[in-house]
Amino acid sequence: MDQKKTGHFMKELRREKGLTQEQLAEQLNVSGRTVSRWETGNNMPDLSLLIEMADFYDIELRELIDGERKSETMNEEMKKTVLKVADYSNEEKNRLMRKLHYFSWIGVVTFLIFIILEASGLAGNGILEDISSFCCGISFGVLIIVAIYTNRNIHKFQAFKKRIFQRMEIL
Known about the structure:
Layout: H1 3-16, H2 21-28, H3 32-40, H4 47-57, H5 61-66, H6 72-120, H7 126-149, H8 154-170
Helix pairs in contact: 1-3, 2-3, 6-7
């Protein structure tokens, strides 16, 4: 924190309100000399007084401590950027959820085929046994994929997958 900058800003704020140091001091229940020390940057007010001053001047505490107003355009630009990032994040999330939805239905259908073949006793005959085993494997694989993608640590899995594919390209 730059005390001189903050002090100069406090002086600007006081002047904008049309107050003398003595009038501000009276408002904050401190001496005029104390206000003078703040404005020269020799001393700083306690946190409770900083909060009271921020309320009095109708600014954010952060602005008072930083010694400058945050521009409205900067805040608007930041807001727009944050909204764009949120939209992008939501789109990524929706794309992932669609993939999981498709995988889940594939798992359900293959599991139903497996159950029907096993329950009817057809799974013990040649090609139907292979189909039943294949459907069971697909269902289990889909279950694993869904478990991985719904895990909070998916980014670690994605990084691992990326490293494996990069190594495969090197070979």
